[in-house]
Amino acid sequence: MHHYFGSKDKLFLAAIHAPANPADLLPEVLAGGRDDLGRNVVRLLLRVWDGPMQPAALALVRSAVGNEWTAKLLREFLVTQVLRRVVGTLDMPAREREIRGGLAASQLIGLVMGRYVLKVDPLASAPPAWLVATIGPTVQRYLTGDIELPR
Q1: Whether residue 73 has pLDDT greater than 90
Q2: Fold held by 8-144
Q3: CA 140, CA 70: separation in Å to the nearest integer?
Q4: Among 17-21, 76-80, 120-124, 137-141, the least confident range
Q5: Is 73 exposed, middle or buried (0-12, 13-18, 19+ CB in 10 A)?
Q6: Most exposed residue of 41, 46, 104, 120, measured as fewest CB within 10 angstroms of its CB?
Q7: Are 105 and 70 in contact (CB under 8 A)?
Q8: What is the 3-state secondary structure (H, E, C) of 28-71?
Q9: Phi, psi (5° rounding) for residue 126?
Q10: Cα angle vertex 39, ends 38, 45, to 5°?
């Protein structure tokens, strides 16, 4: 695996035919600074999911629902390659970053399930700009806003 792909994350990217490495897209998410993280994350998610990787990503998500190994792989990828890098830019204790990343993940996974898997309207047919404007602030609150942390 290391000879051909270099790492488990690169193997995962190859397996889902990802159009880009999330690490390469991070500057786009961080471009507007702390106050634009929520909208930028949602915008990027929609752009990637509406692109050429959608069929492979849908197959992966459907598989993850019924297969713990696939769910673990997807979860590790989402957390380590995407959300941990975003919340890692926030100046707060590690435990708080972990909690906030999990909350943001719940919103993003719900968006993917509602829009692309279950095709729930208005999510399925809504223009991306509307979803960014509507869901982005919720993701932003999870990342940087006032939330009550568990004890």
Answers
A1: no
A2: Tetracycline Repressor; domain 2 (1.10.357)
A3: 28
A4: 17-21
A5: buried
A6: 120
A7: no
A8: HHHCCCHHHHHHHHHHHHHHHHCCCCHHHHHHHHHHHHHCHHHH
A9: -70, 145
A10: 95
| pLDDT given for residue 43 in this prediction | 94
The reported pLDDT for the residue numbered 130 is 98
Q: Is the pLDDT of residue 17 over 80?
A: no
Spatial separation of the C-alpha atoms in residues 42 and 102, rounded to whole Å = 15
Q: Are 42 and 50 spatial neighbours (Cβ–Cβ below 8 Å)?
A: no
**pLDDT mean across residues, the chain:** 86
User: What is the spatial distance between Cα 134 and Cα 81, in angstroms, rounded to a whole number?
Assistant: 25
The C-alpha atoms of residue 122 and residue 8 are separated, in whole angstroms, by: 36
pLDDT for 33 equals 86
Tokens standing for 148? 């009550």
The Cα 49–Cα 30 span in angstroms is 19
Q: Which of 138, 146, 105, 147 is nearest to 39 (CA)?
A: 138
Domain ranges in the chain are 8-144
What angle (nearest 5°) sits at the alpha carbon of residue 11, between those of residues 88 and 77?
Answer: 30
